[in-house]
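Q&A log
Question type: sequence-to-structure
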Amino acid sequence: MFRNILLTKAESQKALFETVADKLKSEGYVTQGYCEALKEREKEFPTGLKIDLGDGSDILYAAIPHTEVEYCLRTQVVYVRNESRLNFKHMINPEEECQVSDFFFIINNRNDGQTEVLSQLMDFFVTKGNLPHLQELTDEDAIENYLKAKGVF
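Response status: OK
Response body:
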């Protein structure tokens, strides 16, 4: 059973997108054109996030790749943890690089659903301790339960 969690070993953004797109297509989450749409959207509108709580704690990074609704067959966040960090452009300042291993792929087939999902994710990111605790979890049951409890899933 697919738990909306993928643990990957991609060595590039392209490889990550292809791995995730293949899995999501096989699960019936996305359409055939999803992977190309993901790559194109990332070029135009980068999804890397620099999470600086401004309290002296470590700066953290995440990314929220997504596409237009026409490529999505349901509404779901899929958490992907890559074994190594991958270079993503910062969504606010594309000149800035983000080294990301935690990805929150937004699958959204509703024209009005994106804002709510983004709001839940941002709440998760800016709550001190959430992302570091997630990074410590290794068991998919624990990851799933944690993300459900925090409102991500």
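Response note: The chain has five helices and five strands.
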